[in-house]
Amino acid sequence: MHEFLQKNRFVFSLSLIFLLAGIAISIWVRTWSINAQINANSENQNLVDVINQLEAETTELEQSIDQLRTELAEQNPSGIVTDEYYAKIQQQLADTQFYSGQTPVSGSGIIITLNDNTAGAEAAQQADPANYFPENYIIHDSNLRYLLNDIAYLAEAIAINDQRIVDTSNIRCVGTVIIVNSTRVAPPYEISLIGSPAILEGALQESSQYIYLKNKNMPIKVSRSENLQLPAYTGAISGKYAQPAENSKP
Fold it and tell me: Does the model's pTM come out above 0.70?
């Protein structure tokens, strides 16, 4: 029995360590991919900044793995893992992954599809080439952010083009490309939100950004779904400023 418990402890420890290690490896792969683009255009400082950020996140994850090993030993100094203790830790890990967006989820909600106004751009260019500005006919990172700001508080889970949105997600432009969670996305942009379809649709209709895009004749399609499937967030989750208060530690 003791040998079985020791084996469980070993397997559980490796599971926790490999979880963070897997995330670190995924970040390294994305870093390598973006680095290949850097070599093709060394003057793109924005992409260099993305590389530096991803390398910093990888370092933080490596430190988290070491800290996890230490905390695991401190919480169970005897080295004996009972079934009750094992089940409790498993449930805590599952809850943490779920609420931090690290597990796939499904449920009812809406899908907002945004696209560039290519027809309007072509017409404007032909009608008045001198006053044609292509940036007026494309979806920008700010449009996505402002739209989410108006309705995200009503959703239980969100994804943009299969990129899960969590508290630490970023949506920004790198040159002419929109980056979500350090991953390049392209139009059409599908914003999937899990929540009450009626409430989400109602809030969307009142959104100032939604009205703005409609007035600019940007193609927008809204549809309901009873079974949205959203992927897990696979990026790094770390804090630079917020730390556990001393009196909150067990």
Answer: no
